């Protein structure tokens, strides 16, 4: 596992107002309008800074008027991705070849081609508008990464994740399941590193599924670190009086994973790619329901998780 803490060089380049981040091995370079106050929110993305050649370039400008759309983003298209929401929109053209991401976080080699072309090319370029709020930039990046990861044998998932002994333990749960509360309970455990308490990026490499940190933490908190590790098991959160771990079938694990999937695209192709990834996770990883409640000792919860 590679783990980085906040700090280091500025992720925002003041002379170019450029946000350069990498999530799940996929690098995005966003050139921000100098008028955007959201461009000052670099601390939120600091652990995810990257100088790798991007899989996607995006010019983001300040919206001068109210945008049309609902609070829930919607993404359409195949060769082009067109997103609309009340706080942002973007239009991205996809190229048939290019290196969208890499297999290992921080690796300068081992790039792969999302659609079978020559490595080293940017394969998605576009432009967008956002409302001048840090939350709007965050929402736009969530929607963008849900589509980019979908094309790189990956996905965004509503889940917390911890790493112990170089293995990741995924704790999927919809809003209100207690992901952030559980991570607060476990934070003091020296044997654990927390990948995220809200959204986790998954990627598939052959038979291995890896979990990655994202900058999208609960309560709009600044991320604590950035890392990745192979997933060892799935533990779906549920409230219960007793602390216990109940085995789940692969079919039940698949059903619950689908509830936690973050995907704003509506095409059959995008849905099929997401189904393939989640099916691989459900059928190849041990799955459990983790029943717990606030107040259970962290050491006991840890024994149930790993």
Give an overview of the whole structure:
- This protein is an alpha+beta fold and about 300 residues long.
- It has two domains: about 150 residues, no CATH class; about 150 residues, Phosphoenolpyruvate Carboxykinase, domain 3 (Alpha-Beta Complex), CATH 3.90.228.20.
- It is built from five helices and 20 strands.
- The strands form three sheets. Strands 2-3-4-5-11-8-7-6 form an eight-stranded mixed sheet, with helices on one face.
- A hairpin with an 8-residue loop joins strand 9 and strand 10.
- Helix 3 crosses helix 4.
- The chain is globular.
- About 10% of the residues have low confidence.
At a glance:
This protein has 306 residues and is α+β, with helices and mostly antiparallel strands. The chain has helices spanning 134-150, 179-186, 250-260, 268-284, 298-305; strands at 3-4, 12-13, 18-23, 26-32, 56-62, 74-76, 80-84, 88-94, 99-102, 111-113, 124-130, 154-164, 167-172, 193-196, 199-205, 208-212, 226-239, 244-247, 261-262, 287-292. It has two domains: 3-152, no CATH class; 155-305, Phosphoenolpyruvate Carboxykinase, domain 3 (Alpha-Beta Complex).
Shape: globular
Average residue pLDDT:
83
Tally of DSSP β-strands:
20
Give me the secondary-structure category. Answer: alpha+beta
Biggest sheet, open or closed, and with what strands and sense? 8 strands, mixed
Radius of gyration: 19 Å
Give the number of helices. 5
Percentage of residues assigned to helices: 10-25%
Count of folded domains: 2
CATH class of the largest domain: Alpha Beta
